[in-house]
Amino acid sequence: MNSVQLLNLLLKSLRAFEPQEPSDLGSLANDIDSIRGSLISTSAAFNQSAQQLWEALEIIGVTHQENGVPLTSGEKEDLGRLVTSMIEVTIREIDQQSPTPD
Amino acid sequence: MMGKTSIVHPLRWLIVLMMSLLWATVGSAAALAERGDLEHCGIAAKTPLPDVHPSTPVGRTGSWTDTSAWNGNTVVANRELQLAGAKAGAPPINTPTSKGGRQYSGHALDRMQQRGYVPSVVEDAITNGTRTPSYGGASSYYRPANNVTVIVDDASGRVVTVMGGGR
Question: Which residues of B touch A37 (CB under 8 A)?
Fold first, then answer.
């Protein structure tokens, strides 16, 4: 699987993301971690956006999983904003990494 | 006939004598080995083999099968082939613990075991790594030497999670 295919997988996960339960957060965090680890080279903007989202997912997910409390509306908004930003940079990354037609 | 018998008899006794010596040597070596007195026999001691299937995962640190729960330095539970943190929604295998005066979430311990990071690597990242503000009053510490990022809750100093790589 090449980098564009991996980025498209990530894009699919990001678009399907609906933060309702802490477990939803863990799923996307794992996807980001796994796909980032498989990508050889990515832009600084992509790395920064992915890292910010991953950290937020992990921090919120761990806190709620250990305390057993539901996500707050503020946290859902924050995650929605970060995911939207991540979708944008992922689309740009796909465009950059897609082979140009001869 | 008499001459043939006189030759066969000494040979028979010689063979019996050699077999007796060999039997005594092997028997004493095995006895020493069982006692653990390896200096005198040079062969490994017999140790009782556990009654497990040969394909049973051993759960070495850093391997993907290592999802054992810790209590201090003692393994108290093992889920073997279940990769820590990989299954969405799975609760942490480890419980929150203090190591070296530092609090760790159960999830952070799962991640550390999954990736083979010992607490000293995490502590080194916090002490010497590059700090970046993270989400919700937490900080991210990246240490290039070990290529590890540690997320710490600023208020409590507790390690929330650990990952390989950085920004």
Answer: 164-165
